[in-house]
Amino acid sequence: MAGPGQMDRLIACLAKLPGVGRRSAERMAVRLIRERTGLARELVSALDEATRELAGCVQCGSITSASENPCALCTHPGRDSRLLCVVEDPADILAIEKSGGYQGRYHALMGKLSPMRSQGIQDLRLQALLERVSRDRVEEVILALNTDVESDATAVFIRERLADCGVRVTRLAFGLPVGSGIMYSDPVTLSRAMKGRQMP
Amino acid sequence: MAGPGQMDRLIACLAKLPGVGRRSAERMAVRLIRERTGLARELVSALDEATRELAGCVQCGSITSASENPCALCTHPGRDSRLLCVVEDPADILAIEKSGGYQGRYHALMGKLSPMRSQGIQDLRLQALLERVSRDRVEEVILALNTDVESDATAVFIRERLADCGVRVTRLAFGLPVGSGIMYSDPVTLSRAMKGRQMP
């Protein structure tokens, strides 16, 4: 495989997708070119359709159809507007919705404070968050952020920015994930689970 | 994110790529739709171009430009046709080429014997391999297969099929990968490294 220009271009493009490294991009490109079932054509058509008919929700930032913006989650009358769940990525909204335990609204930051990836305050949907909090009379902002150092820093930053708004700020509980064992848990998770211990 | 039909379709399509699960596909889809730099458009164009101008090499199975088939590796006069390196996937050819230690020809099987993924003998480019071995007067077939159980079974199968051809069949050495520690190696790797020990 002499790596013709078109192949390099396709690989470079696929490697820009989240979680895709150079090696995975190479395997994907090979599959896309060789696949006899027309996977490449199918993907082109799905992308065409999706970019034409989908858009980011102007309010929460999740994906919605271009004809329904703000999205159904933002306009649904049955959801509690006093609760606002803040996530890093719109895909996180899907995961929380699947868990079924939440009936409030959402707000996607589109990232987190990450000096490593030169993502700063100006890259997050923070101003929009502050505006929503005061405009929609939010009573509790639930930070459903990831659990790494950058997400921790982002959580502290948002808490401080919201300090003057008179809104309660909480964060998802830390602890042992379901199905895991004490033996396989890292020390930080264990100490946080210990700290947050509850009545069984 | 109510998961509109176009979004589901894009996610399902991305999840068909090798190494991509449902979760990764969701993240990719969100990025593709939201990305302001036009990643989706870029990908559509790269796919369009690649499917139009690239093809599988009729001989080795790797990716080549439609106007150069068989590919440069198959036609290069400086490469040794007596050596034939058999790989599972065309992307493996790229990896071996980068390692720089090989100057023979290649043959991609396009998979391995895998009952789990209902991939059998008829799905592999085996007949083409047998024909090449006798036609090109190959002296050594080097099996550069992966190191899992299915690849092991495939290696044994090919060795038996080639037994009557009078060709030498070898397989890449098993052992410790560079940069790893004894402590972190699994028992099978360690016992294979022990069995294949060499003078330093």
Characterise the protein shown here:
- Chain A is an alpha/beta fold.
- Chain A has helices spanning 5-14, 22-34, 39-53, 72-75, 90-99, 126-135, 149-161, 187-195, and strands at residues 54-56, 63-65, 80-87, 104-108, 140-144, 168-171.
- In chain A, the strands form two sheets. A four-stranded parallel sheet of chain A has the order 4-3-5-6. In chain A, strands 1-2 form a two-stranded antiparallel ribbon.
- In chain A, strand 3 (80-87), helix 5 and strand 4 form a beta-alpha-beta unit.
- The longest helix of chain A is centred in the N-terminal third of the chain and has 15 residues, at 39-53.
- The first copy, chain A, is globular and about 60 Å long.
- The relative contact order of chain A is 0.08.
- At the A-B interface, helix 1, helix 2, helix 3, strand 1 and strand 2 of A face helix 1, helix 2, helix 3, strand 1 and strand 2 of B.
Number of alpha- plus pi-helical segments of chain A = 8
- SSE order of chain A: HHHEEHEHEHEHEH
Instruction: Note the overall shape of chain A.
Output: globular
Strand order of the largest sheet of chain A: 4-3-5-6
Q: What fraction of residues of chain A sit in β-strands?
A: 5-15%
Q: What's the β-strand tally of chain A?
A: 6
Intertermini distance of chain A: 59 Å
Helix content of chain A: 40-55%
Q: How is the main sheet of chain A built?
A: 4 strands, parallel
Question: How confident is the prediction overall: mean pLDDT of chain A?
Answer: 88
CA-based gyration radius of chain A: 21 Å
